[in-house]
């Protein structure tokens, strides 16, 4: 069993739908990253959070440390949101453990 | 804007060849990382460096070595490439610890025949 599990692995939705991607982890962490990877490989860091909620435009990330669970939400989804979304758990100051990624496809 | 560049987007090599993958960052970051990404396995850390000439093994260092002679440049070396090293290789840098935001390069897709 992976230390960081994402669900679903693949998600297809229509433009405008509300999207939720989940990340559960089985280890103690100091914080968690959400990353976005577009076709072609480039990875961008979306959020780093250690408690509560962060919002950037249409993206919202939440984390519940007690339940060892984080979610990434996309409101009013758009085809340009199509990408692979990766969560990465930060253990202490040194170890970064990645989930396997969720492939999101938004159809027009 | 932080910029992390990698020497090649696509590379094809033969088994047994020595392969160099170069990564350069322009933001004076202390930390640099090399990952490989494989379907179903996600991103895995090969090596990282927290200072010039300093390096630490990641989760899968076997078959790889690294070099960091200058702060801005971090090289990944495959001494004798093998087919199981066919993968996407991603370089990243960050200003402080591994927990800080990492900035990724565009990736190099390496095929070993």
Shape of chain B: globular
Q: Provide the β-strand percentage band of chain B.
A: over 45%
Average pLDDT for all residues of chain B: 91
Question: Structural class, from secondary structure content of chain A?
Answer: mainly beta
Topology order of chain B in helix (H) and strand (E) letters = EEEEEEEEEEE
- What is the molecular shape of chain A? globular
Oligomer: heterodimer
Short description:
The complex is a heterodimer of chains A (108) and B (113). With 108 residues, chain A is mainly β.
Task: Walk me through this protein's architecture.
The complex is a heterodimer of chains A (108) and B (113). With 108 residues, chain A is an all-beta fold. Chain A is built from no helices and eleven strands. Chain A has strands at 4-7, 10-14, 19-25, 31-37, 43-49, 52-56, 59-64, 69-74, 83-91, 95-98, 102-107. In chain A, strands 2, 4, 5, 9, 10 and 11 form a six-stranded mixed β-sheet that branches. Chain A has a five-stranded antiparallel β-sheet with strand order 1-3-8-7-6, with no helix packed on it. In chain A, a hairpin with a 4-residue loop joins strand 7 (59-64) and strand 8 (69-74). The mean pLDDT of chain A is 91. Chain B is mainly β and 113 residues long. Helices cover 0% and strands 56% of the residues of chain B. Chain B has no helices and eleven strands. Chain B has strands at residues 4-6, 10-13, 19-25, 31-38, 42-51, 54-57, 65-70, 73-78, 87-94, 103-104, 108-112. In chain B, strands 2, 4, 5, 6, 9, 10 and 11 form a seven-stranded mixed β-sheet that branches. Chain B has a four-stranded antiparallel β-sheet with strand order 1-3-8-7, with no helix packed on it. Chain B starts with a strand and ends with a strand. The chains are: A mainly beta (108), B mainly beta (113).
């Amino acid at each position: 069993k992976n230390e960081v599990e994402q669900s679903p692995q693949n998600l297809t939705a229509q433009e405008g739908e509300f999207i939720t991607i989940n990340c559960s982890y089985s280890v103690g962490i100091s914080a968690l990253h959400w990353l976005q990877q577009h076709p072609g490989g480039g990875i961008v860091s979306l959020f780093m959070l250690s408690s509560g909620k962060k919002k950037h435009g249409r993206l919202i990330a939440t984390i519940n440390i007690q339940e060892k669970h984080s979610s990434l939400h996309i409101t009013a989804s758009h085809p340009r949101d199509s990408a692979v979304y990766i969560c990465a758990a930060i253990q202490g100051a040194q170890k970064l453990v990645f989930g396997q990624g969720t492939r999101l496809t938004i159809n027009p | 804007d932080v910029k992390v560049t990698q020497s090649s987007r696509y590379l094809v090599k033969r088994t047994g060849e020595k392969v160099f993958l170069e990564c350069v960052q322009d933001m004076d970051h202390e930390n640099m990382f090399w990952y490989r990404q494989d379907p179903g396995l996600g991103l895995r850390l090969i090596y990282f460096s927290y200072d010039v000439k300093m390096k630490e093994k990641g989760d899968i260092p076997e078959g790889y070595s690294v070099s960091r002679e200058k702060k801005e440049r971090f090289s990944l070396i495959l001494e004798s490439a093998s087919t199981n090293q066919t993968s996407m290789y991603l370089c990243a840098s960050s200003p402080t610890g591994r927990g800080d935001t990492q900035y990724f390069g565009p990736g190099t897709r390496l095929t070993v025949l």
